[in-house]
Amino acid sequence: MNGFRNTIGIKNISERYFNAFSYKELGQQAKHSTNTPLSETQTTAFELLNKLSPAMPIAILRSNLDYKVTFISKSIENLLGYTSDEFYTLKLNQQLKEFTIDTIKNDNVDFLNRIKENTQNAAEGLEKTIQMRHKNGNLIWVKTWFNVSIDKSGNPTGFIGILHRINDTISNETELNSYLKFQSTLLSLARRFINIDKNDYSKAYQSLLEQVGETIMADRSYIFIHNNENEFTSNTYEWTNGTTTAEIHNLQEIPFQLYQPIIDKHKEGKPYICADVDLLKNSNPELYKHLVLQDIGTFIMIPLLKNNFPIGIIGFDRVKKATTISTFEIELLQIAAEIVMNAISNQDYELLLENEEIQKQRYINEIEQQKQKLENVINAVEAGTWEWNVQTGKTLFDEQWAKQLGYSLSELDDYSFDTWQKFVHPDDYPSVKLALDNYFSGLSTIFNTVYRLKHKNGNWVWINDIGQLLSRDQSGKPQTMFGIHLDVTNREQAKFELAQSEERFRFTFQNSLASMVIINPRTQQFEDVNDVALEFYGYTKEEFLKLYVKDLNSRSLTKI
Length: 560
Fold this sequence. Notes:
Elements: H1 2-28, H2 40-52, E1 58-64, E2 69-72, H3 76-80, H4 84-88, H5 92-99, H6 106-109, H7 111-117, E3 126-133, E4 139-150, E5 156-165, H8 173-192, H9 201-215, E6 220-227, E7 232-240, E8 254-255, H10 260-267, E9 272-274, H11 280-283, H12 285-292, E10 296-306, E11 309-319, H13 327-381, E12 384-389, E13 395-397, H14 399-404, H15 417-421, H16 429-440, E14 447-454, E15 460-472, E16 478-487, H17 489-511, E17 517-519, E18 526-529, H18 531-537, H19 541-544
Antiparallel strand pairs: 1-2, 1-5, 3-4, 4-5, 6-7, 6-11, 7-8, 9-10, 10-11, 12-13, 12-16, 14-15, 15-16, 17-18
Helix pairs in contact: 1-2, 1-8, 1-13, 8-9, 8-13, 9-13
């Protein structure tokens, strides 16, 4: 029954990701090649396509809207005995008539025209099981599927088709009907999960369990999700036939130890099949009691595998009595597991993208808030701004930045780190570089330093430079930085003049011929005294500075 399983897998994946396979093949056939690259999704689809169809007689073809075949897989020779070159000599609509015996009728061939004109009504494509003539003259059963291929804008670009030889697995019409019943179920499931909205996964899983359960006449079907870290599993989705008791609320956080035989089998990548629960009575009494409490007579559990490791279970039960489990049913559950696992992977990927988007938006908001704070400062103090790509050296200055140095922005012919560096006073550059290195290494939370830049008129302008990183690259290295320039020349000049004034006063105080002291007006304690006063009062400086005004005799003081 591998043919059954692989047909469904091929149909499912090809319907969704046909381009992946054809681009891969086209790249290997120069005269029918295309330069369209494989996307990550298409590559993944191709790998899954191979996984689901090892060594199967399957041919995949593609044509343009004029029915000219642009691609046919080399496997067509295994399918019908004809080489791909022989197929390229005919148009697609001619091929269907040329090689079909119990043929796809003309109205079905015309369906190609209908789906070309109205892709919405052709969403399901054309499916038909037919007999085709092999090159050696023999008749073979072939499952066919055709649909229109569309571009990203939804416009039809041609046709795609899959031919699958099934006569090796189907020997009579009765078996064919049974086969098609199960296949129809899986095709319906596959379509349900194609382009599913992120909010519909729960409904889709529930629908899958219902369809599978009804198809195989199960009493209960379910999906368990494992917590491998804490070694328990929980029934997450469940369907029952209406007369069977639901067990989902009783099957939460079931220890792995209870399901150990099942878990061990699943770690080997194999299903656990039990046609008669009574057989477990002696070999595994604890598991037997657990199953009997649920009235289970027969069950099968298929592993949900991620990177070949079980992360959950899909299974079905029949209650009260033991029954046989057919190959069809096993295959159906295996493909259902593939569909569920593919959906879980899609959910994980969508969640990852959603989390990345949330983090990105949070980061953007933080940056905007930081920028807003800086803009408020800029507007208040007429600051110049700069933005620096630390890795490339490219720097953006605004008009106010240039104006602070006596230039217009157009006069600065090179917008780079070097533009700024050539204005920095040589004596100040080492301290500025140290402040920048300390900020990048995390020793300071913001870049904030004062230094001199050369004005157009030759004077030196004192600048208070304040900056902050906007981003780092993936390796953590500084990438983009934003900052402001504040002209603090007047402040620095005032500081300089104050220092000079203090120096002049200190010289006068120490060298005066008169006794001079400095008194704290609040405490009346002496804070300083010159040498003349010390000689006059006969104290050492240390002794004098411990005195208060009231401690001295009535000799007059010269106060300053």
